Amino acid sequence: MTGAPPAPPRVVFEDEQILVVHRPGRSAFTVVTFGGFMLRPDGMRIWAGPPIGALGLEAIGFVAKASNWFPEQVVARAAPRVRATLRGPAVGYGYSMGGYAALKHGRLLGLDAALAVAPQVSIDPRDVPRDLRYRAHFDPGLHQGMRVRPGDLCEFPVVVADPHFAPDRRHVDLLGARDRVSRIWLPHMRHGVIGALTSTAVLGRVLELLLARDAQGIRDVLRARRRTSRAWHTAMAAAATVRGRTTLAGTLWAGAAALGTPSALLDRQRMEAERERDRALAIGWRASALEQLSRRLLSAAERGDWQAVLHVAARMPATANTPRLATATTHAALALGEPAAVAEAAAQAAAAELPGPVRIELGRRFAMGGHGLPALAVLLADPSVLEDAAGRASAAQVLGAMLDDESMPPFWRVAMRSLRRRVLASIGKPGGAAPA
Amino acid sequence: MDAGALADRWRALLARAPAPGEVFRDPRDAGSLTATALEIHTPAAAARAAAILAQAELDPATRLACARGLAEGGRGAEALAVLLADPATHAHPDAVPVLQACLRSHHIPRPVAAMAWHLLWRLNPRRRGGGTRAPA
Asked: What angle do CA B90, B95, A320 make, to 5 degrees?
């Protein structure tokens, strides 16, 4: 570090998307920080400004004016001025959206190393189809080719994340080889892994190790930090609570309180963890109950106990129906022939997600049983049934069989006859050209 | 309009109604038929109008408008018959408000009501597009 007093902060670059602030310090290297999802410009404020200020580090802070994931073309415009401002080696540091930027723009900004905490590799649905968390912020106009590629990275990128938190883990797994990007895993901290770096002393030490390209050293510091970290204690306590490990959870909640976590915050986090535990229990119960009901229904169908089949089917949500269950229920209702049972089975089949051929077959069974409206309900509940020529040809046969039900109201019979005529015409079959 | 004039108009519309597979000679007649049937306010008139509209060749916009008129007039089943009689309107994105109106009317048989509800769900544009969620 030098002894000269730092100059006042100044704006290095600004446009409609980002603000870049230079906060001079006394260090021989520059920290480049990238603000997170929530941070917006506020004077000369930068992300992680207080610990960086306390450490007296030379810093440049990127602050986004919207949750825009620091688009490449915007950062490229700022890059020449940022590169001209860097003093000594440069390390990038960011969390979540900021972590993305630290990785994505590492080479563009001339960074030597980068610490990306719980970063995304992209928010483009084509890159990360299962991550819905930030999809609302994806803008095709701004984010073409946004995914972090090996050529974007600085020479020594390090990622810190929770390996068991699937939404973040999937991003890290897309980053490529471990020998190119160092991973530091902090289990059970979910997206809140940044909590492990909230100490000024820890951040200072980690940045030194980052410059020294010592990933193992960073790992040791962050793991040792866990024993004195409020964030680690609350995260672990929440994880233990969710898993029903009451005694361990109690010890960890007490540890978090002893380290000075505000009691209101602890109460809220504890309540959220308990709610998540209850939800997990309910989902588990529901899945096993549905499995049990499915087995009972199929076993009753094998015995030919149609009343039992319908009794079990009535207790299952219609959307849980599989093709086998819907077929068994239809068969039972048609075997009994009671109008209420037939109507109920048809309603269940209408609701079920069924492949087209299964839906058409069930419609055919209702139609052949002389139940025109239930057949119509099953057949037409899914518009995709009439999408292709094969489906249309089969559906036309079912519509023809439906017309045998003379108890159908006349306007329905006319409508189904007209639909059949149009369907046949669309596939060039006889009966379609002239009105039936 | 008095009952006699309404009956005369109804008879005239029926006389001009197209044969199955043909178009209305006056395109406005499809709408008039729907409105007059609702004004007569009997199930038989609604059913007759629905049968004529189902078998007539209508462009999708007219079919959707007639079905919506019937549905909003409380004739949900007849509206569904008009809507479903043509594959072009069965899977039409603009069928969503028609189906919503159908489901508000009474006396739709149980399996047909279930069909309308699930068809509506499957045509829902947010569902088709995969949907979006608020950010975490």
From this structure: 75
Distance from CA of A386 to the nearest CA of B (A): 7
Q: How far apart are CA A75 and CA A91, in angstroms?
A: 16
Domain boundaries, chain A: 10-228, 229-298, 304-426
Summarised one tens digit per residue, pLDDT across range A395-405 is 999 999 999 89
To 5 degrees, how large is the angle CA B96–CA B98–CA B99? 65
User: CA dist B84 to A322, A402, A416, Å?
Assistant: 26, 14, 8
CA atoms of A93 and A156, how far apart (whole Å): 12
Say how many domains are in chain B.
1
Backbone angles phi, psi at A183, to 5 degrees: -110, 135
Which domain covers residue B16, as residue numbers? 3-128
Residue A374 C-alpha, separation from nearest chain B C-alpha, in angstroms: 6
Cβ-proximal residues to A357 (8 Å cutoff; 6+ apart), any chain: A391, A394
The one-letter amino acid code at A331 reads H
**CB-based contact B71:B98 (threshold 8 Å):** yes
DSSP letter for B19, please.
P
Of A351, A383, A426, the CB nearest to B114: A351
Which tens digit of pLDDT belongs to each residue from A222-262? Answer: 988 877 888 889 989 998 888 878 889 999 999 999 999 88
A343 contact residues in B (CB cutoff 8 A): 109-111
Instruction: Flag whether the ipTM exceeds 0.90.
Output: yes
CA closest to B22 among chain A residues? A435
Which among A191, A378, A386 has CB closest to B87?
A386
Taking the CA of residue B66 and the nearest CA in chain A, the distance in Å comes to 14
Using the Cβ of B21 and the Cβ atoms of chain A, whether some distance falls under 8 Å is answered with: yes
Inter-chain CB proximity B133 and A67 less than 8 Å? no
**CATH class for domain A10-228?**
alpha beta
Q: What is the pLDDT of residue B128?
A: 47
- Chain A contact for B132 (CB, 8 A cutoff): yes
Does B134 fall in a domain?
no
Q: What pLDDT does residue B135 have?
A: 26
Q: Which DSSP symbol is given to A66?
A: S
> Among all chains, which residue has been given the structure tokens 């003093």?
A87
Between A67, A411, A422, which is nearest B78 by CB? A411
* Contact B84/A at CB under 8 A: yes
Stated pTM of the model: 0.53
